[in-house]
C-alpha cells in the first residue's frame, strides 16, 4: 500500500484531535496500518494544534516539509502556517472562517485578506478547496462540528486510503452519542465540497 501522509492543523478547541482520532480509528477498522502524532502548543489558550496521520508502512508518524499528501486546516492562517508541508501534488482543504489570533483580535495587527492567503497556498500546493466550514457546521446543528465537516471534505478528495463508510462507522462508534447524528450530518456536508 502506498504511504499517505495527512496533516491537520487548527486552533485549540476546534476538534483537531478528535478528527485525527476518527481517521486513525477508521484505518484500524479497515485493517490499514496507521501512525499518528500530535503537537498541542498552547491549545487551551487558542494556540496551534497539529495532528499528523500516516497511513501505510511508514517508519515514522512525522511529516517532513514537502511530504504531505493532504493538508487540512480548520482556520486559514493555521493552514498557511503549515504550507511548508506541501508540494505541488498536495491537496489543501481549509475553512475560510477566521479565528484571529489575539493581536489581530485586539487590533494590534491586521488579519490578512483571504485572497492573499489563497495565493500563498497555491504557490506551494497542487490544489485548494476553501469554504466556510463553520457555516456548514452550524447548518448541521452544531458550530463545534467543523472537524467533521473538514473530515468530509478530506474524504471527498478520494486521497484517503479509508472509505467514507469506515469514517461514518467510526463517527458512530467513537464520538459522543448525543452528537452522532449532528456529526454524521456535518461529515456529509463536508463530503459535498468537491476538490
The strand line-up of the biggest sheet is: 2-3-1-4-5-6
Strand elements, count: 6
From the 3D coordinates, which CATH architecture would you assign?
3-Layer(aba) Sandwich
Could you report the average pLDDT, rounded to the nearest whole number? 92
Shape: globular
Low-confidence stretches: none
CATH homologous superfamily caption? Pyruvate-ferredoxin oxidoreductase, PFOR, domain III
Q: Could you describe the largest sheet, including whether it forms a barrel? A: 6 strands, mixed
**How many helical elements?**
8
Strand content: 15-25%
CATH class: Alpha Beta
Number of domains: 1
Secondary structure: helix percent: 25-40%
Q: Topology of this structure?
A:
Layout: E1 4-11, H1 16-30, E2 34-39, E3 48-55, E4 70-73, H2 76-81, E5 91-95, H3 102-105, H4 114-122, E6 127-131, H5 133-140, H6 146-156, H7 164-174, H8 180-191
Parallel strand pairs: 1-4, 4-5, 5-6
Antiparallel strand pairs: 1-3, 2-3
Q: How would you describe the overall organization of this protein?
A:
With 195 residues, the chain is an alpha/beta fold. It has one domain (4-191): 3-Layer(aba) Sandwich (Pyruvate-ferredoxin Oxidoreductase, domain 3), CATH 3.40.920. It has helices at residues 16-30, 76-81, 102-105, 114-122, 133-140, 146-156, 164-174, 180-191, and strands spanning 4-11, 34-39, 48-55, 70-73, 91-95, 127-131. A six-stranded mixed β-sheet has the order 2-3-1-4-5-6, sandwiched between helices. Strand 2 (34-39) and strand 3 (48-55) form a beta hairpin. The longest helix has 15 residues, at 16-30.
